Amino acid sequence: MLLLGLETSCDETAAAVVEEVNDPVRPWRIRSSIVASQVAIHREWGGVVPELASRQHLRDICGVVERAVEEAGTSLAALDALAVTQGPGLVGSLLVGVSFAKSLALALGRPLVAVHHLAGHIESLFLEHGSLPLPAVVLVVSGGHTSLFHVPEAGVYRTIGRTRDDAAGEAYDKVAKLLGLGYPGGPIIDTLAKDGNDRAVDFPVSRMTHRDRVAPDRTVRFEFSFSGLKTSVLRYVRGQRIDGASDAARGARGEPVPQPRTLSAQEVRDIAASFQRVVVETLLDRTFGAARWVGAKSVGIAGGVSANSRLRRDAVIRGQEAGLPVFVPSLHLSTDNAAMIAAAGLRRFHEGGRAGWSLNAEASLAI
Ligand code: KG4
Ligand code: ZN
Fold first, then answer.
1. Taking 50 as the threshold, does the pLDDT of residue 63 lie above it?
2. Does residue 146 line the site of ligand 1, with CB under 6 A?
């Protein structure tokens, strides 16, 4: 069976053909996976501009789908089904994929399956590694999301934690911006941190109170929070640049306000490493705490931030300590792509999931 997946939830226009083969251990094979990234367009603005994103999806989608079909060595007529990301994401971006998928499915007379973007990230692990030992705990960590899922059996995703404010990738991007490092910040901070002292600055780890961890119905949650950390980095950077006193305080005392100094390259590397240590520790503390709590047999980490070299390295160490295998997707499957949407689509297809022609994009779709 051949399924075409489409993904346009944020700033990547992606299409992929995934084949289902008769192998119970690894049933999905990627025949093609094309991603047209808009990073160069949004870099100029320091973040994704929704209006520009949807316009660029419109320009790219036909070519991306044609290339995916061509590289898979197949034809549109040979496809058995289509799958598309319905949400969550930027509504204008999602609409391009949803409308395109509905039109193509209607024209070809093929069934269409709606996919939740985070289900796609979770399925990237199954696509890459075959089935994970279950139950599993999966952390999906990207620019838009930081969520923990309990996966008791394949295709069942129970949310057991999420961020209350910024996503981890968003914190990376904002910290990179305030350090003047460019966009997207994650890969830049990851690289700089390699030559930094991760104990140079003692940024606070956000601790959750009992009420944060136990919901009113007494179920345990594993919440994240990254906006406080981002503010601490901002305060620290400002303090360093003006030698610890604020311009306003100096002005009020009638003292001359000094010109802000520039941070040295080593100071920036140290800040990057110290910030990254706190993010990675927070992510792994919650993930392994959740794994203990649900009695998981494996841990998965997916989404753009799972490309982070320290997160990957430390996760494996924690896994060895806890006696749990840790799974991460390869780099091309960790950031947004359509192969993961096609995989999630194949699973939904066999569960009987079919989208009608009234399918609409949903910016805050629940899983
Ligand atoms: O999954 P993704 O491509 O898109 C969303 O669904 O958000 O994730 C993009 C996010 C960005 O915030 C980017 O800075 C972050 O993933 N990212 C990283 C790394 N590579 C990408 N963060 C930390 N370290 C990396 N190596
Ligand atoms: Zn994503």
1. yes
2. no
